[in-house]
């Protein structure tokens, strides 16, 4: 009885294990036992196999592919609540393969980050340097780019004044990729004097922070003229362009070099859309005499830690403005290009005096609007 019981138990285990080869050998209903000796050796073999199975040896054998797919199918169905049978045999097979890949990927190590996450994403700028031309905007941007949490476009996009018809997607694609906690920035000084720019920036985001670098409007006008003269040597003299009538001393406000310096007029346009708290006014003069102090104000305004400090600057006597000290891994300090710090042409003093008289009331109004006296008078 014990032999028969062992054989029956063995057959049950073998049937569960899918061992069809041994089941065929044990089908006693179709076999004639030739001798007791054959039965004895058969039982020994079967009991030996059963012993190894009970001790876990069979678990180390590879399971049929069908069983593996079935287990993965069960996991997928539990995850998504979808039945592959409803999709048909062919579609179900494809879905299983795709979802199986997703399931395996979900168990991948956490350091397998996608390329998009590694390099961040492109966002609209949270802060824009909107002006003014020849005020020190390039210096400010270069100083800010030292900060590890600032990512800025190198060239001027001119989106809100020249290329607005290209659309916001085009504009965002110009931006550098940023990680969480970093600020995207750009600078285009002509935005400040562009009538449509405030409304367009507001339409993009009413929370945009705006930075205006201002400078004595008379000095700024001379610097503007100097830059144009370097590109067009045959340009008329400064006084010929500045006055409509040299005898009466009437200033020509249609000349852009003069018009840009009427800061109060342009600021009114921006304050129709943005509160004063959204704007920061940086002194172009202090950016030269105390770059670290002005950079501290800028970093506070942007909500950044004060990383850029006086240790980053030295004053270049030749150029007449501060440069960045030699960065690590660089052979020389970083100074602005040859176009910055050009010597100004000699302008008759009476011309400068008349121009200062013209700007005085506008300057005073600008001081009142911003709550800051820049000391240009």
Number-wise, the strands total 11
Beta-strand share of residues: 5-15%
Query: Which consecutive residue ranges, at least 5 long each, have pLDDT under 50?
Result: 1-33, 56-117
At the fourth CATH level, what is the homologous superfamily of the domain at 121-217 and 260-343? Answer: P-loop containing nucleotide triphosphate hydrolases
The level 1 CATH classification of the domain at 121-217 and 260-343 is Alpha Beta
CATH architecture of the domain at 121-217 and 260-343: 3-Layer(aba) Sandwich
What is the 3D shape?
elongated
State the share of residues found in helices, binned by percent.
Answer: 40-55%
Mean pLDDT: 78
From the alpha carbons, calculate the radius of gyration and give it in angstroms: 40 Å
Secondary-structure-based class equals alpha/beta
CATH topology of the domain at 121-217 and 260-343: Rossmann fold
- What is the end-to-end distance? 119 Å
The number of helical runs is 16
Helix-strand topology string: HHHHHHEEHEHEEHEHHEEHHEHHEEH
What strand order characterises the main sheet?
Answer: 3-5-2-6-9
Largest beta-sheet characterization: 5 strands, parallel
Summed up, what is this model?
The chain has 377 residues and is of the alpha/beta class.
Describe the structure.
With 377 residues, this protein is α/β, with parallel strands linked by helices. The protein has a domain at 121-217 and 260-343: Rossmann fold (3-Layer(aba) Sandwich). It is 46% helix and 11% strand. The chain is built from 16 helices and 11 strands. It has helices spanning 2-17, 20-25, 36-54, 65-80, 89-106, 115-118, 137-144, 168-174, 197-204, 217-231, 238-242, 256-259, 263-271, 284-289, 291-301, 349-370, and strands at 121-122, 127-131, 150-152, 177-178, 183-187, 209-214, 243-245, 250-251, 279-283, 313-316, 321-324. Strands 3-5-2-6-9 form a 5-stranded parallel sheet. A hairpin with a 4-residue loop joins strand 10 and strand 11. Helix 1 packs across helix 3, helix 4 crosses helix 5 (89-106) and helix 13 (263-271) runs parallel beside helix 16.
